[in-house]
Amino acid sequence: MDLVLELQGVSKHYPTHQAVNEISFAVERGAFFALLGPSGCGKTTTLRLVAGFEEATAGDISLNGRSINQLKPYERNVNTVFQNYALFPHLTVRGNVEFGLRQQGADQLAKKVRDVLDLVQLSGKDDRFPAQLSGGERQRVALARSLVLQPDVLLLDEPLAALDPNLRKQVRGELKSLQRRVGTTFLFVTHDQEEALSLSDQIAVMNKGLLEQVGTPEDVYLRPRTRFVAGFLGAVNWIDGIGVRPEATRISRTADGERCISATVRSSVFLGNCFQVETVCRDGQCVVAEVPRLDGSFAPGEPVHLWWDPADELRL
Amino acid sequence: MTQLRRLFLAPAGVIMGVLFLVPLAIMLAYSFLTRGAYGGVTAEVTGDNYQRVFDPLYAAILLRTFVMAGTATLGCLVLGFPLALFISRAGPRKNLYLQLVILPFWTSFLIRTYAWMFLLRDTGLINSALLAAGLVHQPLPLLYNEGAVFVGLVYGYLPFVVLPLYATLERLDKNLLEAAADLGARPWVTLTRVMIPLCAPGFRAGALLVFIPCLGAYLTPDLLGGSKTVMVGNVIQNQFTTARDWPFGSAVSLLLMAIVMVLLMLLIRRGGEKLV
Q: Which residue among B179, B185, B189 places its CB closest to the CB of A86?
């Protein structure tokens, strides 16, 4: 395995609270790696530690096997796409993209700028100022400005959060294909589990400054190691300590098999591709099932039987 | 409705008219009249007063005034920016430091200028200390020259630069500074290529707030500059007092005002944004 970035027991303590607590994970070269968690879980702090904006209280961060703890942000070969993009308002698109290249003393500036603007489909907008661009265009400038420096790791802080919701899904696809094309390692922070699942090769789920689990999207969704991970990545029915996702919870009118649980339908909501059926078991527990539209609907008050494939149980 | 509006705007109109427009009109009228024998004016219309301003003697004073005001403004900006930066990064002490910047205003400008005389004169604090330390054998000529006027002006107007610069620095998106460092810029580059350009509105506002009053300064050059370092403010003051030439004083005043207004308009047009 070719690891580009490694965190070992990294902590960041502030006088008032502990933002990050002894987290360790490794990112493979070329991967799309997500740091997922609710707000205040320490994911952005972790990103800032890697960028060098914050100094770790303890632990070690290494890039290409070399410790970068002591390096200033401008000495680390990682670049950041900020949540608000942080484009220099007094510089044009070209000026923004050239900024980092000039610090490196790079040659062939014009060609490099042209190539990267082609890559993010911003050709011809070189002379615009950030204020003259749309949100999506600004994001692409931020990407171009960082990618042109060919960082070992590109850090993205909630890259889609500032975009219009309609645009978000489209940009998500573009971001993924861009990453595949350039092959740069992306480490991105998000609180949106759908975003993390759809984009990432690996997801690190964080909660309250702790790393809960690292794994592929399937791992964290289907094989969560903690109750928090199970709940954060999607809805879960907890039945006698066993977790079952609503889409794996089956409903039938007739009892068959020994694993059946009797319940009564409380409500059924049409969601287009499925019905979300809320049922109440005998012991008063509420269980939600997603029933494909083609399987028909259930009426409130109807007695039903709940069952699931043991393979679909979430084993913590 | 319009009547009511007019009624409410009337007091402001009266104040503007009586305290601003009428005096200005009087000055304008005087500037085209001839001086009276014992001050005042006689009703003899002439354009000589304006011509006299371009007499080499006065033109030189005017030029010196602009150079002095310009260098003082530059001095204020150079000293004021680091101070404003320091205050904006002072965390919980910010307010204390801002108070300290404003503190001198609690004392009369006249007294503060006298205080500088006590510091700079031959038997003043600085020279006494230097002599006592054996660093010099003759008092340094610190007072009554352009250097003293420069020091006095910079000292007097420094707060007017610090405050707008501080306001701009406070509004500065910290992410931009991080972004610069992230893109490989060392602190010096971040300062010169990102922070200072982004503070341009603050620099412009501060420069204006210093340059214009410096053009009209008369107390500082009078007290610290002695007879050799006359600025246009002193010329105007003289015309209304000892020289008793009100028409010429009016002409110089109006010309100075016209120059300031033209500069202001140019600056506003170029800046395109609100000042302060």
A: B179
The Cα–Cα gap between A129 and B267 comes to 22
Helices within B89-231 (DSSP H only): 94-102, 109-120, 125-132, 146-171, 174-182, 187-189, 196-198, 200-215, 219-220
Model confidence pLDDT, tens digit, residues B91-114: 899 999 999 999 999 999 999 999
Nearest to B268 by CA among B190, B208, B196, B189: B208
pLDDT tens readout for residues B136-148: 888 888 888 889 9
Q: How confident is the model at residue B265 (pLDDT cuts 50, 70, 90)?
A: confident
Q: Which residues contact B225 (CB under 8 A, 6 or more apart)?
A: B144, B145, B146, B148, B149, B231
Contact B173 A84 (CB under 8 A): yes
Testing the interface with B: which of A90, A97, A146 to mutate, by most B Cβ within 10 A?
A: A90
The closest of A183, A184, A192, A209 to A59, measured between CA atoms, is A209
A103 and B194 in contact by Cβ < 8 A? no
Contact call for residues A87 and A81 (beta carbons, < 8 A): no
pTM of the model: 0.83
Decide if A79 touches B, using CB distance below 8 A. yes
- Give how far Cα A31 sits from Cα of A34, A216, A229, Å: 9, 11, 21
Please tell me the predicted confidence (pLDDT) of residue A257: 66
